[in-house]
Write a structure and sequence with these properties.
Elements lengths: L2 H10 L3 H8 L4 H6 L10 H22 L25 H6 L11 H5 L33 H4 L15 H19 L4 H12 L3 H21 L6 H27 L6 H17 L3 H18 L7 H17 L9 H12 L9 H22 L5 H9 L4 H20 L1 H5 L6 H18 L15 H15 L28 H10 L3 H12 L4 E2 L2 E2 H15 L14 H8 L9 E6 L3 E2 L5 E9 L9 E9 L5
Antiparallel strand pairs: 1-2, 3-5, 4-5, 5-6
Helix pairs in contact: 8-9, 8-10, 10-11, 10-12, 12-13, 13-14, 14-16, 15-16, 16-17, 16-18, 16-20, 20-21, 21-23, 22-23, 22-24
Length: about 625
């Protein structure tokens, strides 16, 4: 074999070199002198570029030879010659697939070639399909808005799938309408941003949000006057309980697996579970959940390391539970006690930076008022009462702190910084609500077993101010006649809010104000408050207030229509006040239960001093109030 033949064989099949060397020893030296370059190695990108250049090179050359203006690397696209397809030509031209001139009655293309024009097909018109009757759909199974139809199959990071349309509708209602109802005018960022965000990332929060959304949908329909069948209510409650159980199971699984959750997720889960219990009227369960949940949070997280907004939110939950049930075991947190001692020892003098700061400090002062009044009535143990004195919860210091709060709050509202800012939605309502609570706290702090009920008659102007601030919160005009006070047309009834708002202060003012017309004005405002604020039910409070009013005014001859009496007679009646022996001093409302007649309601006991202050407190009135007074 010649040397050139040897090289050609090696280039064609390099693996044959070994066999060739073993058979032809004398060519080894020649082989070693011959340089055989290794085959080139290309990656995927280089091979693709080489292939593209080889394919495009002939086309580019053809374009340049034909005198075209295409640049290098651009393919020449040849378009098919022909006319645009026409659907209105004659039948003959359509069969021949030629362009028709569309002359009437026979086209020129057919007649010019000696063909017979078969004419034109009749024009077709699109007739709409007849509308079919669609049966009414349940509110929670209604088709969502088009924007929300394209939804993910899994809404949370844990992989919890969207089970059915009912679940999606409940979650949609929660994120679209429920959060604004829960937030009212406070904690707007918490409800409208943080809760929806974490509900897409945490399975427990998602299931709890679905349960709250379903219950809120039923509450909204009830407030709007839409009747609901008993079967639907039972189905809605069962669905909410099932979602609540899923939220609890998800939380328990995380605890068993020792998964550490952020503090805001734990607080949010507690708040949503609290709302579920409150919406179902399960007051005892809500109080127990609040007590144990806050204790668990204090154990799992360092309270001082939590965001200040979350800690203030927990403090307001505790305050709500203690004000709702004086015998509740929910105690103040150590942080709240320290805040009370700090405010009373050295009240701050700087104006507030925001409405939220004013609200949080006022909540601490109201907690101090509640702490002091409960100690006077024996709601606290002797040791706790002694500690209250050590912590400085005294009437003089508390009164000075309240006065200082009002002065700083007025300076904030009048400051250029506050007036220059864009007013937030509901800012005026929040300001009126804070002023209303301040007026209540100033009167409430003097309450106790040793105070005469006649002393409240000296605060008629304060009660009038409370009514005016409540009218500002509700957006109603200050009509002189209580019967003329109605909500504006644009105002929608609110079925449930998480925070305490108008119900507790208006109810307390109704029990202490004995001016007939002013008392009825407060009652009308209470009827226009939200249906439920936390654990406080508007209908329950209205029924209790009406019973107390009827008992105290029975000896005066006053009725519900006192404003319709003759002017002279009415003026005489309005000057009269019930005596001390006919006034109710303490009203104790039991927790929600099933009464003897099978209806859900509360047992109420009213205590007075019919035998004078020396005779002590006695039950003078006992009755039951129901959650559904119209049934």
């Amino acid at each position: 074999m010649s040397e050139s033949r040897f090289v050609d064989v090696c280039k064609a099949r390099p693996e044959s070199l070994i066999d060739f060397l073993s058979a032809h020893k004398r060519y080894v030296a020649t082989v070693r002198e011959t340089h055989i370059p290794p085959p080139p190695v290309f990656d995927h990108v280089e091979l693709l570029s080489i292939h593209t250049a080889e394919v495009m090179a002939p086309q580019t050359k053809t374009a340049q030879e034909s005198g075209g203006t295409e640049t290098a690397g651009t393919r020449v696209v040849h378009r098919r010659l022909g006319a645009r397809k026409d659907r209105t030509g004659c039948i003959t031209c359509k069969i021949r697939r030629v362009k028709c001139g569309e002359e009437k009655p026979a086209c020129k293309r057919c007649t010019s070639t000696g063909r017979t024009c078969d004419g034109y097909a009749p024009a077709t018109t699109m007739t709409p399909a007849p509308r079919q009757h669609v049966p009414p759909v349940h509110p929670l199974q209604r088709t969502p808005e088009p924007l929300l139809c394209a939804r993910p199959r899994h809404l949370v990071a844990g992989g919890a799938p969207v089970a059915n349309q009912q679940e999606h509708a409940a979650f949609q209602f929660f994120t679209h309408t429920g959060v604004s109802s829960l937030a009212s005018c406070t904690d707007i960022d918490f409800w409208t941003r943080l809760v929806p965000q974490l509900s897409h990332a945490d399975a427990a929060i998602y299931h709890a949000s679905v349960a709250v959304g379903a219950l809120l949908k039923g509450a909204h329909d009830a407030v709007a006057g839409q009747t609901q069948a008993m079967a639907f209510r039972a189905q809605l409650t069962a669905f909410a309980i099932e979602r609540q159980n899923r939220a609890i199971q998800s939380t328990v699984r995380g605890l068993v697996a020792h998964r550490r959750r952020p503090a805001d997720a734990d607080v949010m889960t507690l708040v949503l579970l609290f709302c579920i219990e409150a919406l179902q009227g399960r007051e005892h369960q809500a109080l127990t959940l609040c007590q144990r949940g806050i204790l668990a949070l204090a154990t799992a997280h360092m309270m001082h390391a939590m965001p200040a907004g979350l800690v203030a939110l927990l403090d307001r939950i505790q305050l709500q539970c203690r004000m709702f049930n004086a015998g509740s075991a929910v105690n103040e947190s150590p942080r709240l006690k320290q805040a009370m001692a700090r405010l009373l020892a050295s009240p701050p003098r700087a104006p507030f930076a925001s409405l939220d700061a004013a609200r949080d400090e006022q909540a601490v002062l109201i907690a101090a008022v509640q702490h002091m009044v409960a100690a006077r009535w024996g709601g606290l143990s002797d040791g706790a009462a002694t500690d209250a004195g050590k912590n400085g919860v005294q009437s003089s210091a508390l009164d000075a702190a309240l006065l200082g709060w009002r002065a700083r709050f007025d300076r904030y509202l009048a400051s250029p910084h506050a007036s220059a800012r864009t007013p937030e939605p509901g800012a005026e309502r929040v300001a009126s609500l804070l002023r209303l609570r301040y007026l209540i706290a100033r009167i409430w702090m003097a309450d106790g077993p040793g105070r005469s009920e006649m002393a409240y008659d000296d605060h008629v102007e304060v009660f009038a101010g409370i009514a005016a601030e409540a009218e500002s919160c509700l957006g109603v005009g200050g009509q002189a006649d209580p019967a003329e006070q109605t909500l504006p047309m644009h105002a929608k009834p609110t079925p449930f809010t998480f925070e305490m708002g108008l119900i507790p202060p208006l109810y307390w003012a109704l029990l202490r104000c004995r001016h007939p017309l002013l008392r009825r004005r407060l009652l009308v405002l209470l009827r226009q408050a939200p249906a439920q604020e936390g654990l406080w039910s508007r209908d329950i409070m209205v029924q209790v207030a009406e019973k107390v009013m009827a008992y105290e005014e029975a000896s005066l001859g006053l009725g519900p229509d006192v404003r319709d009496e003759a002017r002279d007679a009415r003026d005489v009646l309005l000057q009269r006040r019930p005596p001390e022996e006919a006034r109710i001093k303490v009203v104790r409302i039991g927790l929600r239960t099933t009464l003897a007649n099978g209806r859900q309601g509360d047992a109420v006991e009213c205590f007075g001093m019919p035998y004078g202050r020396e005779g002590g407190l006695h039950v003078v009135l006992a009755f039951s109030v129901f959650c559904d007074p119209d049934q």
